[in-house]
Write a structure and sequence with these properties.
The chain is α/β, with parallel strands linked by helices and 159 residues long. The protein has helices at 4-18, 28-48; strands spanning 77-79, 86-90, 114-116, 125-126, 139-141, 147-148. A four-stranded mixed beta sheet has the order 1-2-3-5, with no helix packed on it. Strands 4-6 form a two-stranded parallel sheet. A hairpin with a 6-residue loop joins strand 1 (77-79) and strand 2. Helix 1 packs across helix 2.
């Protein structure tokens, strides 16, 4: 079960990272457990922010308990095998319907390198400014997804 403590810890880590803190190094086992909690919180909050019009979305495999509770085994999620960081989200044609705003925990997945949200319906919502948090992004596909606005390309390194 996701706990309030996990949410508080994630918030503290975010604040420390924003300040450029040097004390982010924790004992490895504790760090891994908390990193997993932060990733799961981000992904579950992202999942719950959509309406599923009777379709079977990829996110139906995203479970926090029991079989298939490891986020790295969830459909559409790719993890770095060494660190466990989420580096890819392939959610094209996932029957996602709703809006994404900058407060969505999705934007805390700062190690993300590939993001595919194509062929979904985001209600012509503004492309969130928090997309700038994805400084490592190498592939971004928002085509046919009913977003409005421009991707802030000045935030990304063109390769």
């Amino acid at each position: 079960m996701l706990t309030r403590l996990g949410v508080v810890w994630c918030e503290m880590q975010k604040m420390k990272a924003e300040r450029g803190s040097h004390f982010l190094i924790l004992e490895k086992s504790v760090s891994v457990t908390r990193k997993i909690t932060c990733h799961i919180l981000a992904m579950v909050q992202f999942k719950w922010s959509f309406i599923y019009n009777g379709a079977h979305p990829k996110t139906s495999s995203w479970k926090t308990e029991g079989e298939n509770s490891s986020y790295c085994s969830w459909e559409g999620v790719k993890c770095d095998e060494e660190t466990g960081h989420i580096i890819g989200l392939h959610l094209g044609s996932s029957c996602l319907s709703g809006s994404i705003n900058s407060s969505n925990r999705l934007f805390r997945l700062v190690h993300l390198q590939k993001l595919d949200l194509s062929d979904n319906y985001f209600n012509y919502s503004q492309i969130p400014t928090a997309i700038r948090n994805f400084t490592r992004i190498r592939y971004l596909n928002l085509s046919a997804s009913a977003f409005f606005g421009r991707v802030p390309l000045e935030s990304f390194t063109v390769v």
